[in-house]
Amino acid sequence: DIQMTQSPSFLSASVGDRVTINCKASQNINRYLNWYQQKLGEAPKLLIYNANSLQTGIPSRFSGSGSGTDFTLTISSLQPEDVATYFCLQHNSWPRTFGAGTKLELK
Amino acid sequence: EVQLVESGGGLVQPGRSLKLSCVASGFTFSNYGMNWIRQAPGKGLEWVAYISSGSSYIYYAETVKGRFTISRDNAKNTLYLQMTSLRSEDTALYYCARGGQRFDYWGQGVMVTVSS
Fold first, then answer.
1. Cα–Cα 20 to 30 A to A15, which of A46, B65, B68, B73?
2. Which residues of A33-42 are buried (b: 16+ CB within 10 A; e: fewer)?
3. Which of A101, A105, A104, A103 has the alpha carbon at shortest distance from A6?
4. For residue range B34-43, what is the model confidence (pLDDT) as tens digits?
5. Backbone phi and psi for residue A82, each to the nearest 5 degrees, phi listed first
């Protein structure tokens, strides 16, 4: 199985900050990585698919990059509504595997 | 509008069975593979099972293989998860999600609690 190592586990940042979250795959997954946002008590929401494609309706301050084993989610200017937990998902092979999550809070 | 609505959860004793349903609307259900994903209280996401659009391809997580069965009825726009030999570690919020690659729409989840 492909292991997804996500970092950091916890992140505190101020409104307007640039925020980066990382996922590292245990083997090459090409660009088959998605990013999700999960707010408290809600279902996950797809932000980025195939490493760098912005899902329809998602603000452009969210972006993704990377390929192979190393991937990054960037929020260019943090907004209060971005407080949430963020997960990555690899869809290169079965079983699909998620990162453990990054909890983002406001400083 | 795409909607996925799960049902069938509840409190069940260890070793017993439970069947979850996920009713889809707002898209052509028969065109999409579907997944079950779970989230234990306070924990991260764990993919559980996948079924292709025509049920030809089915995959399971090792943690549920042999105990859970995913199925679908395209005429009823409904996805199912039959869970048997339930264990305390199966306690989680169970989500259905669309697609084998994007997982682009998720339901709100249904809670399954396995306890005596």
1. A46
2. bbbbbbeeee
3. A101
4. 999 999 998 9
5. -85, -5
Contact B55, B30 (CB under 8 A): no
Burial degree of B93 (CB within 10 A; 0-12, 13-18, 19+): buried
Q: Report the distance separating Cα B100 and Cα B20, nearest Å.
A: 19
Q: What is the largest CA-CA distance in chain A?
A: 38
pLDDT above 90: residue A41:
no
Q: Taking 90 as the threshold, does the pLDDT of residue B22 lie above it?
A: yes
Nearest CA in chain A to B51: A94
- In the predicted model, is pLDDT for residue B63 greater than 90? yes
pLDDT of residue B67: 98
Q: Burial code of B60-86, b = ≥16 C-beta within 10 A, e = fewer?
A: bbeebeeebbbebebeebbbbbebeeb
State the average pLDDT over residues B56-76: 98
Q: What rounded mean pLDDT belongs to chain A?
A: 97
Residues of B in contact with A100 (CB under 8 A): 44
Best residue in A6, A88, A96 for a mutation probing chain B (most B CBs within 10 Å): A96
Q: B8, B19 in Cβ contact below 8 A?
A: yes
Distance CA A89, CA A97 (A): 6
